[in-house]
Amino acid sequence: MPMPARIYQRPKNALQSGKARMNDWLLEFAPAEAKKPDPLTGWAGSGDTQQQVVLRFGSEAEARAYADRYGIEVHITPTPPRRLKLQSYADNFR
Q1: How far apart are CA 92 and CA 3, in angstroms?
Q2: Above pLDDT 70, what percent of the chain?
Q3: What is the pTM of this model?
Q4: CATH assignment, 4-93
């Protein structure tokens, strides 16, 4: 049974000014079972350890080749275009 996963590029955080790790492509596995509360602690958890695995690749082609090699069914999420809001400092005071 192939494990479903998704390949995507991490979007830039609104609080982030740098461009570190923005070119990495991530392969993240989909949850195999729903989370349920632990009766002792009340924390949500499951027996699915694949949910904790996130693999980093330098390009989309590398991530796709890895998925093909290990028979992982993937959904590729395209990177959203970056929109720049160009304004001058004086616009903050209008």
Answers
A1: 49
A2: 97
A3: 0.73
A4: 3.30.160
